[in-house]
């Protein structure tokens, strides 16, 4: 490692960080250096691109402290037995890179993770030192996301939260059986205990902030986690149930899903092929249903095939649920409550809010609803409007082909 220059280290450790999906920057506290003090900002438009809830693109330097690791997790390309080129930054080198990239307007923040070297505590100390140097020595006010280590001393994780906007602890795999089989050196109870400690610190910080204006903020953007999809036998129903439990117990901001990708010199216990990327997309859609559409975890799981536990890949989970529970439809857009309208395929939260606001003054027709959705063909069988009632569609046995999106061959050189 000693003979590698900064450029070579950056090439290795930035590429090694690409498997971590949980680098979004939603929920950050607004800071800037317009007062002439410090450096950096968490605002504005933005080498990793994350998106805030308002659509802003946040560019992050996404790297590992090191890709060396004392653990031998089967699914990880940086595992101890993996034949990959190793590199390691010092905390000072990462600080210099972050500041240099920021001053060139390449980035607005840092996402830092690491393999485990020497011990979890030693590695966590190095990660915390990076954030501490940025905040205290250089008054950096940009975004910082630190990936913490569940086996590290809780005091070190707490210290990380005092410097970072967001911290995250990966649960790695959806089931305890999968984790035991593919990452025997990691422990589900220890991971959950670490997440519980972070939630306790977040609650204490919120309580202290209400009573004292000068109270230090702990990870104001909360905590998140990530799980690998397709490396073990967990079904989509298992993953949905697991994610719902994590949201409920630890008040996570996000659960990220990362489709398993086959790695060089892979262990024999891993699948030979990656899962369809559409599966990852459907899980994110299911996650959205629970977070923004008031679906209960069991309801989302009901959208999966009862025999396999897997969500359909050709249609979204909301449409799959509606097709399974035809008795809940059609709903009247002029009378139905908000929770019933949110179940209508093709109607998003904004569309439902617009319907509720408009129908206070007049009754809506099908054309009014069509202006609020991208596909009125998907919506029509599931609603009643002033001039529309799906008499011919409501009981059709072959409804799915009519509402499923049409497959099209895209043109390579289309404008």
Automatic annotation (TrEMBL):
Residues 64-211 form the Radical SAM core domain. It comes from the Bacteria. CDD domains: Radical_SAM. Signal peptide: none annotated. Keywords: Iron, Iron-sulfur, Metal-binding, S-adenosyl-L-methionine. GO terms for molecular function: catalytic activity; iron-sulfur cluster binding; metal ion binding. Pfam families: Radical_SAM. Its cofactor is [4Fe-4S] cluster. The keyword Metal-binding applies. PANTHER family: ENDONUCLEASE/EXONUCLEASE/PHOSPHATASE FAMILY DOMAIN-CONTAINING PROTEIN 1, TYPE II SECRETION SYSTEM PROTEIN K. This is Putative DNA modification/repair radical SAM protein.
């Amino acid at each position: 490692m000693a003979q590698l220059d900064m450029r070579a280290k950056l090439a290795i450790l930035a590429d090694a960080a690409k498997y971590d999906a949980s680098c979004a920057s939603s929920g950050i506290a607004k800071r800037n250096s317009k007062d002439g003090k410090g450096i950096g900002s968490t605002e504005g438009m933005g080498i990793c691109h994350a998106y805030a809830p308002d659509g802003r693109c946040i560019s992050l330097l996404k790297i590992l402290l090191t890709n060396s690791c004392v653990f031998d997790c089967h699914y990880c390309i940086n595992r101890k037995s993996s034949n990959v080129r190793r590199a390691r930054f010092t905390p000072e080198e990462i600080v210099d890179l972050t500041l240099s990239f920021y001053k060139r307007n390449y980035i607005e923040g840092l996402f830092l993770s690491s393999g485990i070297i020497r011990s979890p505590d030693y590695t966590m100390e190095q990660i915390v030192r990076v954030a501490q140097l940025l905040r205290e020595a250089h008054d950096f006010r940009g975004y910082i996301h630190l990936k913490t280590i569940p086996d590290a001393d809780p005091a070190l994780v707490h210290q990380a939260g005092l410097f970072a906007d967001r911290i995250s602890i990966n649960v790695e795999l959806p089931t305890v059986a999968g984790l035991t089989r593919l990452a025997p050196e990691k422990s589900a109870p220890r991971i959950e205990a670490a997440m519980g400690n972070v939630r306790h610190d977040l609650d204490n910080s919120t309580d202290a902030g209400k009573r004292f204006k000068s109270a230090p903020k702990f990870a104001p953007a909360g905590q998140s986690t990530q799980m690998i999809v397709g490396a073990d036998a967990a079904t989509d129903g298992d993953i949905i149930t697991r994610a719902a439990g994590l949201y409920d117990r630890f008040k996570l901001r996000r659960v990220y899903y990362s489709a398993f990708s086959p790695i060089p010199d892979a262990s024999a216990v891993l699948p030979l092929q990656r899962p369809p990327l559409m599966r990852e997309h459907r899980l994110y859609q299911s996650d959205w249903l629970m977070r923004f559409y008031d679906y209960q975890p069991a309801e989302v799981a009901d959208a999966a095939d009862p025999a396999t536990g897997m969500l359909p890949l050709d249609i979204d989970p909301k449409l799959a649920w509606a097709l399974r529970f035809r008795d809940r439809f059609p709903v009247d857009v002029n009378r139905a409550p908000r929770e019933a309208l949110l179940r209508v395929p093709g109607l998003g939260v904004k569309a439902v809010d617009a319907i509720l606001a408009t129908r206070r003054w007049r009754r809506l027709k099908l054309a009014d609803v069509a202006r609020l959705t991208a596909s009125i063909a998907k919506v029509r069988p599931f609603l009643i409007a002033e001039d529309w009632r799906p008499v011919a569609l409501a009981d059709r046995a072959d409804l799915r082909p009519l509402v499923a999106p049409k497959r099209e061959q895209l043109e390579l050189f289309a404008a």
